[in-house]
């Protein structure tokens, strides 16, 4: 039963974060806005990346987002850990472009969809994600601003498969890395 619930949660995550692979996007996703000095009020249906982080910046973040492959890996690691911690703000910020595509395809707003998905991930999986890392050797560089992270790159106390996370495509756009496709 727990395995079936985990699979359903993974399927919901896959569906919620991406449009079907056989569909093409009719218009390019606009770049996230540049950081501003005053944070905008969050909208419950908005999936656009917020302009600032609520957490205190690390020394690397204080210098700005890293446009290298290592920066993309760090950003995806932050996403996985946010999924494990059920941090809707971070999850929906990093997955904003994919969530917009999914919402256009009939899924609800990111925060609503992700709240349901969090309920389908086991406590053991959430705990594993909070400490997950990424094997850089398994990450494929597609271009200078795009990487693909397969599920087998995720290193955690629980094994994650393609049915859990698939192949995540991240792009460096608008000054940071965002998940665009699975």
Report what the structure shows.
This protein is of the alpha+beta class and 182 residues long. The protein is built from eight helices and six strands. It has a four-stranded antiparallel β-sheet with strand order 2-3-5-6. A two-stranded antiparallel sheet has the order 1-4.
pLDDT < 50 runs, ≥5 residues: 1-61
User: What is the percentage of strand-forming residues?
Assistant: 5-15%
Main β-sheet, in a few words? 4 strands, antiparallel
Structural class: alpha+beta
What's the tally of helices?
Answer: 8
Summarize the structure.
41% of the residues lie in helices and 13% in strands. The protein has 182 residues and is of the alpha+beta class.
Structural features:
disordered N terminus, two-stranded antiparallel ribbon, 8 helices, single chain, alpha+beta, 6 strands, 182 residues, 4-stranded antiparallel β-sheet
List the helices and strands and how they pair.
Blueprint: H1 2-17, H2 59-63, H3 69-85, H4 88-94, H5 96-104, H6 110-118, H7 123-130, E1 133-134, E2 140-143, E3 146-149, E4 154-155, H8 162-165, E5 168-173, E6 176-181
Antiparallel strand pairs: 1-4, 2-3, 3-5, 5-6
């Amino acid at each position: 039963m727990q395995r079936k619930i985990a699979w359903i949660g993974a399927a919901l995550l896959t569906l919620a974060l991406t449009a079907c692979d056989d569909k093409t996007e009719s218009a390019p996703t606009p770049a996230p806005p540049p950081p501003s000095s005053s944070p905008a009020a969050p909208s419950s249906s908005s999936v656009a990346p917020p302009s600032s982080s609520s957490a205190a910046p690390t020394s690397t973040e204080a210098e700005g987002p890293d446009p290298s492959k290592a920066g993309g890996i760090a950003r995806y690691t932050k996403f996985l850990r946010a999924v494990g911690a059920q941090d809707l703000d971070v999850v929906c910020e990093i997955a904003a472009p994919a969530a917009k595509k999914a919402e256009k395809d009939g899924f609800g707003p990111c925060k609503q969809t992700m709240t349901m998905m969090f309920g389908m991930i086991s406590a053991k999986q959430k705990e594993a994600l909070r400490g997950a890392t990424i094997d850089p050797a398994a990450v494929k560089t597609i271009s200078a601003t795009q990487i693909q992270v397969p599920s087998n790159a995720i290193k955690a106390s629980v094994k994650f498969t393609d049915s859990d996370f698939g192949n995540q495509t991240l792009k460096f756009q608008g000054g940071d890395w965002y998940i665009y496709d699975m």
